[in-house]
Structures are given as structure tokens and as C-alpha cells.
Amino acid sequence: RELCVASLQSSHAVEERGTGITGGALRWLALRRLRGVTRIELVDCGELTKASITSAVAGCDSLASLSALRVGPGSWALGHIERLLAVAPPNLASVRLDVLLEMKKDLHEGSHLLAALARPSLRVEKLTLVSDNVSRAAAPSDASGAEAATAALAALDVGSDGDDDAAEEGAEGAPCALGRLCAALLAGGGVEELDASSGALDLPGAASRLLAPLLTARGCLLRRLSARHLDRRSVRTLARALRSNGSLDSLNLSSNMVYGRAASDFAAALAGHASLTALDLDHNPLLDGGGAAVAAVLPSTPIRSLSLCFTGVGDAACDALALALAGDCRLRSLRLSGNRITSSGATSLAASLGKLAHLDLTANVRLDGAATAALAIALPASALRSLRLSGCNVDRKACSRLAAALPLSRLARLDLSSNHFSDGGSDELAWVLGGCGSLTALSLADCNIGDEGADELLEALADADAPPSVRSIDLRWNKLGSTHQGGRGVSGDPRADASSQKQRTAAERQTEHLEHTWQQAKAAGKPQKVYVPKWQREARKAAGGGGGTGPSAVG
């Protein structure tokens, strides 16, 4: 309250960003201190509610500008907006909100929400489209809406390149509801962020009726676009629209049908784009051809973040990415999780890390220790700050290579989870933690680390002579015993998360019992026969340990 009062006295404005201001405090200000205020800006205030903001606006007769973005749970729905506009003072000329639109309820002819979106005074920073099963059904005929969308498309010169596309983009093939939405957004000045990641645009003509006109409109404000479940025709229509767009800086097309010719057309449309800095193509069947096509245009774009997770790319795409990284490329973050990359592709990337700051190779199960070794060799000379190798078959020897390179690198975050190198690998890392001046986060979850490995890590964390810079270490889903759980051992260190340990299997409990019995008999000097199941005897024999000595046979 004191900060708000001071701000009011100096500028007749309330500005709250990411603070814990509550609805009660805002209502108190509205009743006692907001007389004469002309501007209210509320951003990322999770404790507020839409109702408390509406009450505050109702008490500010002089309010001229309101921004309420990411406040409380969810976005502004139709009911919230209607109540806000009903109490808005006459001088309120600018309202900036993030809006939720339900495809079933809010796109019919005469929709109050569409009418609100068309008001020049209402600026929509983010529009979230929510899908449902009913919205996927055929929309009622509305010739005027369809003709308006078609005319807007023709005026913006977004043509087709085939009879199949022309049929899809015709007036009869697109829901009229999308035409109404596009017309409302263009009349209201556009939208800065469109989020259709729920699959709400899985409709005929989604690209031609809505996305293309928004992207190619004169004075386009659209900066961030996220759309899923677009078909190949819509992707190609979107690619043609991107050629005429100069405002988009973030594009998320994960889980679409970008493959084959569509992938090549899309990559060609990106070439020379002036503003795009983040591109997400996760879960599209790009394969090596599509991945290489995207990599080829990177030097001619300002893209700094590229995500190609679960796209089927392999070593050929990695070679193309390495070639782009070695040239004049602005890429700083590269995500390649869940692909078909082998050690050959990882070695190519390692040789061309350049200025790359973030590399994610999670769940590339074809990688092996050679890939980790190549990355370790490249670490000291690279600018890499974050490296994720979760589920990449990192073994103890690879851990040793990484441990040797860590003190010489700039890494701040290292993720080695789901690599079952056990205590031997964790020991290698524990011994160098004190010399890693930049490492702040280390993930060793699900690495089969036991009590001995936890002992070494605890000793490294408690080293007073060379305290490590690590602020968090993830040890969940390992095999830590009771000595390192419940606030004891390594779990007592606030930097370590040792919760949710694996439960021992029946075979592991039996083996532990046999080992304990063997050690007791050996200490007592009394040879004792111990029964061992056949599968354990065969496993030891196959490993070269023999099947008739030690605890597997006689004490």
C-alpha cells in the first residue's frame, strides 16, 4: 500500500508487476486512494482476481488506461469482459487484456465477445482459443462472413498453388465463424499473441480464413503464434503468408503435418524473415530432409532458438545444423530430444558448438559414450551454458570424461538423469564439484546411485575448503537407503532433492540378504551353504564370476 500511494502521488498511476498485491489491497486503494488516478497497470499478479480488478475500475472515475495481463487464474473470458466494460468510466480509452475465446460459445453471429474484440479501445495482447468437440462440427452457413474473409484474403494477395488448395481456401470450404473472428480482430487493431495450441484450429480453412489474413495485414501486430493440428494444406498456406510477414518473432507449430514438400516450402518461407527469433517444430515428421532444409536457412534468419524434438531427424540433419553453426548463424538454443541421432551426428555438433548456449539431446537412445566424450572434449572451448543428456546411455567412462572437462567449462546446468552409471559415475562427478565455478544445477535423477555414491556427493557438498557452486542437485528415483532419506545424510542438505527413491525389487532384496548372510558367515569363519536361484548363478557365470564360489554357493 505504501508503494502504491507513493506511485500515485508522483505519477497518478498504479504499476504492479509480478507482486503479491491482493484483491483486498486493490479494493482498499480503489475506495481510499485511487481518486484522480489515470492509469492502472497490473501484470503477472497471481493473487488478484478479475472481480477485484473490476471493482477497482468502478471506483476510478478518471481512469483512462487499464492493463491487466496474466492476473489471477486463467484469462479474461466473455463474462469477465462484459462486467468490466459495464462499469468502465467514460474516460477509459485503452484496455489491454489477455482474452480466452471458446470456439463453441463465442463465434456465433452477434457474439458479444466478437463485438468487444472489434472495439478499437480494447487491445488484446494474447488471445487463447479453446477447442471442443462441438466446434469441430460444420458451422452454419453465413455468406456475408465468408465473402468478407475471402475479400480480405484476396486483397492481401495470398494466392494458392494448386487446385486442392484452391478448393480448401474457397468460401464454401472454410467455417464462417473463423471469418467473423478474423474480421473482429482486424477491426480492433489486431492481436499480439495467438495461442491455438489446444488444437482449436483443426478446422477446414483455418489458415486461409484466420492465420494468413492476420499475418499479412498492413501494420500487423502479431508477434507470437502457436497452432497445433493443422493439416498439410494449412501449413502450406501459412508458409505463403510468412513470406509477407515482418512482425512475427515466435512461431510454435508443434504437432502438425509439416513433412515432405510442406517442410521444404515452410523452410523456404523462413529464408530472409526479418524478425523471427524462436521456432518450435516439435512432433512433426520432418526427418532428415526437413531438418536439413530448416538448417539451411538459419544463416539468413535471426532465429536464436530452434526446437526439433521428436521430428525423426538423424545424423544428416545434425551435419546440416553443424554446418550452419560453423557459419554466420545466430542460433543460441538447440533442442533435439527424442530423435534418431547417433554418435556420428553428436560428434558433428560437438565440433561446431560455436556460440551455442543451450543444447538438449535428451532421449536420443542411439547415443553412446563416444558422443558424450566428443561433447566433453568440446566443452572448454565452447560457450555452452546448459547441456541435457538425459537418457543418452552415458556410462561411467563418459562421466569421467565429463568430469575432466567440467572445471574448464562454462556450464551452469548439466542434466544426466536416466543414465544408469551407478555409484562409479556419480563418484567421478562428485570429486570435481569443488572445482566447478559455474555449475549451479546438476541432475542425477534415476541413475541407480546408491548409498556409497550419496556419501561421496555429501562429502563434496560439505567440503569447506572448496565449496561447490552447485545450488541444486537432483537425486530422485535412485536407490538411496534410509541413511540418506528423511533429512538424514545427503537429503539433509538443502541443495539436494533425494525424495521419491526407487523401491527395491524382490530379486534385489534377496540378493542383499544373501550377501549379508555370506558376510556374516565369513566373519564368523564358519562356511555355510547359501541357496542362490538358478538365474543368479547363470548371470554370474555369464559375467565371468563363476557359479560355484562366493555367496552364490558356499560361505
From TrEMBL:
Gene3D superfamilies: Ribonuclease Inhibitor. GO terms for molecular function: GTPase activator activity; small GTPase binding. One of its GO terms (biological process) is nucleocytoplasmic transport. SUPFAM superfamilies: RNI-like. It holds the Pfam family LRR_6. Coiled coil: none annotated. GO terms for cellular component: cytosol; nucleus; perinuclear region of cytoplasm. Residues 481-555 are annotated as: Disordered. InterPro entries: Leu-rich_rpt, LRR_dom_sf, RanGap. Residues 505-516 have a biased composition (Basic and acidic residues). Residues 543-555 have a biased composition (Gly residues). This is Uncharacterized protein. It comes from Emiliania huxleyi (Coccolithophore).
